[in-house]
């Protein structure tokens, strides 16, 4: 059996749309018919060949795509919790389910983590079908009545922001939350921080993204193009600095701006991974961080066991993941979409729904 897939042949060159072998389930795996998959800045990094410093430089033949939702169409003999026909999302941080991290509920930091769409053993979802290893552990069943397009961000950006804000940070009622970078993960963070009771200041270079941030609950916005000193502006808006700030992009400027926009005992959450410019190394104002007891917190994806928290808030209308989905596209449009990310032209989460 064959399926259509967008295959990486050369970094930063258009993906090749071709027929490839459809996956068969491993004994502990499942095959998902992909109904929707978000196109994320992490795909752009994979397409560029970034993250060699993390051991994640994509190789020719890789299928990218790590924000899928769809239906299970086949399961391996050893799979017990998942059945054909189940409607599922797939968290990009696939775990083995058995290491100490997974056993303690932290499978997003699994000792044998398999980042979906970045390594050969975890081919991604820019394809009609997707194989998910250790399916009992890694598949997240979606509630009734939600659509795959609406839930596509749950595999990466939406859940990443949720974990960062709901589990890693300590948001109190009315806390000022500064979100630096309003791409898909940043806009998700604006919406989630608002739902968790924060007062959100959104920072970006594009008015269009800041307008979207206002729609999603930001009470203040800062266009970094228009002000001389972004941290100073945030500090003035928040009357002394934000309680929580997030770098939702992953470049040195946004990370530093985020740290420096905090007040005393503020928490910086680093969600964005860096680019070729930084290669994972960012200079930080460590003395000022000591003097003000600033925390620097890394946050990666989310363990599959915590999704019920999101679903309860979706059920009551407090969270609307679909509000961040901006458009639907076809598989053949993916390369153009990645290209437009080079200049930060996409707003919200574009989702492939036509394979
Ligand atoms: Zn992503
Ligand atoms: Zn593990």
UniProtKB/TrEMBL annotation:
Transmembrane segments: none annotated. It holds the Pfam family ADH_zinc_N. InterPro entries: ADH-like_C (IPR013149), ADH-like_N (IPR013154), ADH_Zn_CS (IPR002328), ER (IPR020843), GroES-like_sf (IPR011032), NAD(P)-bd_dom_sf (IPR036291), Zn_alcohol_dh (IPR050129). It comes from the Archaea. Keywords: Metal-binding, Oxidoreductase, Zinc. Its cofactor is Zn(2+). The keyword Zinc applies. One of its GO terms (molecular function) is zinc ion binding. Residues 11-352 form the Enoyl reductase (ER) domain. Signal peptide: none annotated. GO terms for biological process: protein tetramerization; small molecule metabolic process. Belongs to the zinc-containing alcohol dehydrogenase family. PANTHER family: ALCOHOL DEHYDROGENASE-RELATED, L-THREONINE 3-DEHYDROGENASE. This is Alcohol dehydrogenase GroES domain protein. It comes from Natrinema versiforme JCM 10478.
């Amino acid at each position: 059996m064959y399926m259509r897939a967008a295959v990486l042949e050369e970094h930063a060159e258009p993906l090749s749309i071709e027929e490839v072998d459809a996956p068969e389930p491993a004994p502990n795996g499942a095959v998902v018919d992909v109904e929707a998959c978000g196109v994320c800045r992490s795909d752009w990094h994979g397409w560029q060949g970034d993250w060699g410093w993390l051991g994640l430089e994509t190789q020719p033949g890789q299928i990218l795509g790590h924000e899928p939702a769809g239906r299970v169409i086949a399961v391996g003999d050893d799979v017990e919790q998942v059945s054909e026909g189940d409607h599922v999302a797939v968290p990009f941080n696939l775990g083995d389910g058995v290491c100490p991290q997974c056993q303690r509920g932290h499978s997003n930091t699994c000792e044998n983590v398999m980042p979906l769409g970045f390594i050969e053993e975890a081919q991604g979802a820019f394809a009609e079908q997707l194989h998910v290893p250790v399916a009992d552990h890694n598949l997240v069943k979606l509630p009734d009545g939600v659509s795959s397009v609406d839930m596509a961000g749950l595999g990466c950006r939406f859940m990443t922001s949720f974990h960062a804000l709901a589990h890693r940070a300590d948001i109190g009622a009315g806390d000022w939350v500064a979100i630096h970078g309003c791409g898909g993960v940043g806009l998700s963070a604006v919406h989630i921080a608002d739902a968790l009771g924060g007062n959100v200041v959104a920072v970006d270079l594009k008015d269009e993204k800041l307008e979207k941030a206002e729609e999603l609950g930001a009470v203040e916005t800062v266009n970094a193009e228009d002000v001389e000193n972004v941290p100073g502006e945030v500090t003035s808006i928040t009357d002394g600095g934000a309680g929580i700030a997030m770098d939702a992009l992953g470049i040195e400027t946004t990370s530093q701006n985020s740290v420096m926009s905090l007040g005393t005992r503020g928490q910086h959450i680093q969600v964005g991974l860096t680019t070729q410019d930084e290669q994972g190394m960012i200079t930080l104002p460590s003395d000022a961080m000591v003097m003000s007891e600033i925390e620097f917190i890394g946050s990666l994806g989310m363990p599959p066991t915590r999704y019920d928290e999101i679903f309860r808030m979706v059920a009551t209308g407090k969270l609307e993941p679909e509000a961040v989905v901006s458009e639907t596209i076809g598989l053949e449009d993916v390369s153009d979409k990645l290209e437009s990310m080079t200049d930060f032209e996409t707003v919200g989460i574009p989702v492939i729904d036509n394979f």
